[in-house]
Amino acid sequence: MSSTGTNTAAALPRAADERRMRVARTVLILIGTAGLLFGLYVLFDTVRVNRLPGVALWIGAAIVLHDAVVAPLVFFGGLLLRRAGRRVAGTIVLVVQGAIVVGSIMTLIVVPAFVAQSLTPNNPSILPLDYGRNLSLFWLGVALVATAASALLYARSRRANQRPSSRQS
Amino acid sequence: MYEAQRALASPVRNPRMAVVIGRLLGVAFILCFGTGLYSHFLQEPLAWMRFPTRPAQLYQFTQGTHIVAGIACFPLLLAKLYIVFPDLFQSPPVKSFLHLLERASIALFVGASLVQITIGLLNTYQWYPWPFPFREVHYALGWVLVGLLVLHIGIKLPTITRYWTREADTERGDTEHEATDAAGEVTTDVDAEQTVRRDAAKGEAVRLWGSRRPSGVTGRVIAWIDDTPTAQKPAPTPAVSRRGFLTTVGIACAAVVGLTAGQTFAPLDALNVFGPRKKGVGQQGVPVNRTAEEAKVTASATAAGWVLTLAAGEAERSFSRTELEAMPQTEVELPIACVEGWSQLAVWRGVRLSHLADLVDADPGASFCLISLEERGSFKKTEMGPEYVRDPLTLVALELNGETLDLQHGYPARMIAPGRPGVLQTKWLSRIEAITA
């Protein structure tokens, strides 16, 4: 391709650029470290020492929960979907995947509201909506949109399949 | 480890995508941090700090932004983590002490980010299932995260600058028209893949191609290309995968924001089906943050002998509610805007605070201390700077939306001032003191 030359030129930046980059990185890393340390100072300054292990526990648990539970679930979910979706066009798999992701993220945000609702019955203006029903309707809407989009894509790929092959090569 | 990375390969897991999502997430973090800092200093001002009182909706806007950006962080952060997940299995796991520090900083960044947005969200639900105080930890983590963000940008700067703009080579597939012109699509993708292989030789962008082989038109064309002896296993339309990924993230952001932001942004009220508050829901059409029962004021606030005491130096005067009602009344339209992100515009009627301050000859430059009937609570006693005390919109409110103030809204009298967090609009007022410097 024609742009190979440009690419090589970009890979060999001039010494001045390299120096600028080094200075910028050093400044950012120093400022960032200062912000981090200030945050830790505020944490130790304002939170009682016996509460700090709880903060560390939550941060550690968040990492474990994501890396060992959520990410593998997403990975294997994606794998299953790819297998199941082998016979349809790739774009349809993407639509279904997208629908599941959008629905799951909304569920992640709304389910705690649903749980919290049962815990704070004394103030009727907090969490006043029917979150369970609304979430079900949301999933229904997502499913409908995804089905419609998939049907459209399927029809389109079938039409394309029926075209003479000369137009495809 | 390398095998694990290979297994996780996907067209969306590439440095360019990490930069695209990363900078959106960075913007959201900065918005959250800036608006959070503003809210923090409104509540705990340093001695020299003065704040703008106009526009009166300023705090509604900043705190609404805080919550909206925070909610958008859920899809953005998850997308970012999805993109960079294979980096978890880099091999060797640790190359040097600096590399160890870098990985530790990223682990802390990920963990603290997840905790920050989670406790922030649950705070809007007033649910606190963690063993530490919310306000202090949320504030400290804000600094920790903004520090880690700048640190992360510093560490990744070469990658960020390299992939900041769409590269003609690897990203050309994105500009092509989708699927309808399948052959053209695949040709660019194969081109892109060859570029990627060159990059891979340089140790970059190894993961640009995925392992999935699509069927349908594109799959057939790929199979056809497969049969040609020169081509290696071609990529499955990575451009389409990337577009699909970005579309998904975009829709998820639009959904979580669009279906909750109506709790503060009136035009979206009809779409507010998941917000923890709903406009117009609450006594007198205004949501309530802390109830009279929680504040334990039901008896003291309804006691017949209630008076509001104003003090400035030696001067001290007390007024019953009837006496306050006999004073010149002012009607203002101001929002009550909560730190939790909801807001509600309402009509308030009462006595200007500046009028009351003049009755006790308070120094025009004096800050005031507002004391509630609440027995305990972080906001039982708060301070108000002179810019608010002397503002013509600042009232000791006696009426709300044309009715006597409901007990849940601070009967017999409460503060209402422009551009202040709801927690500082002291309910169940008991005493107002000028602070002498």
From TrEMBL, chain A:
<feature type="transmembrane region" description="Helical">
    <location>
        <begin position="88"/>
        <end position="115"/>
    </location>
</feature>
<feature type="transmembrane region" description="Helical">
    <location>
        <begin position="23"/>
        <end position="44"/>
    </location>
</feature>
<keyword id="KW-1133">Transmembrane helix</keyword>
<protein>
    <submittedName>
        <fullName>Uncharacterized protein</fullName>
    </submittedName>
</protein>
<keyword id="KW-0812">Transmembrane</keyword>
<feature type="transmembrane region" description="Helical">
    <location>
        <begin position="56"/>
        <end position="81"/>
    </location>
</feature>
<keyword id="KW-0472">Membrane</keyword>
<feature type="transmembrane region" description="Helical">
    <location>
        <begin position="135"/>
        <end position="155"/>
    </location>
</feature>
